[in-house]
Amino acid sequence: MKILVCISNVPDTTTKVTFSADNSTFNTAGVQFVINPYDEWYALVRALELKETLGGNVTIIHVGAADSEATIRKGLAIGADDAVRIDAEANDAFAVAEQIAAYAKDKGFDLIMAGKETINYNGSMVGAMLAELLNLPFISMATKLDISGTTATIEHDIDGGTEVVECPLPLVLSANKGMAEARIPNMRGIMAARTKPLTVVPAAAADKLTSIKSYELAKGRTECKFIDAAHPEQLIELLHNEAKVI
Hints:
The structure is a single chain. The protein has a single domain (2-216), classed as HUPs (Rossmann fold), CATH 3.40.50.620. 27% of the residues lie in helices and 27% in strands. The protein has six helices and eleven strands. The chain has helices at residues 37-54, 69-78, 93-104, 126-134, 187-193, 232-241; strands at 2-6, 9-11, 33-35, 57-63, 82-87, 111-115, 138-148, 151-158, 161-168, 171-175, 198-202. The strands form two sheets. Strands 9-8-7-10-6-1-4-5-11 form a nine-stranded mixed sheet, sandwiched between helices. A two-stranded antiparallel ribbon has the order 2-3. It is globular, with a radius of gyration of 21 Å.
């Protein structure tokens, strides 16, 4: 089985977010980057579990610059067999999907996986766009995946519950919490990652549909008002006159 796992390079969740003086770019100085947790903990680890059970090969793919290769090597240390880096910017979901589709279209992958979203953009768009570009079925928010022969059985979250679907391979899916348990690279994996193949391919022609005009930090917590239980009418007044719907 040939599995392709899409990974993103994102700031660690403990990062203090700052922007340039004119708020036009994210300040990367001193920022620790990691594999997007949904890509790593759920998509990649489940792909490795399937490989261990069914045999085959797991390739990780990333769209980004050379400074993301340390993150890619971590994916190799966890257990991926090889990696591909597409040398292009990754700040537009459609352009990223086009880059990955251009690479994957003739490689014969049985399964393409990604996390349900990235923790920096939270767009949840690349998986669906990729499936459309490759003319493949797409299952979103998958929490369980089993494969028998050429059929995948998938559980995924829907409004009000969980749905179980069967889908023929090949397909694209986005992985959600519950798909697998996180793995920590061991020393053997870290050493092996240094010599595993990492192929860099030039960017394909891709359309950017969005551009970033500016960034703005979220507003901090505001003052909390406490109402005496003996005067609930004050709460009603505040809800009417001061509360805001977000």
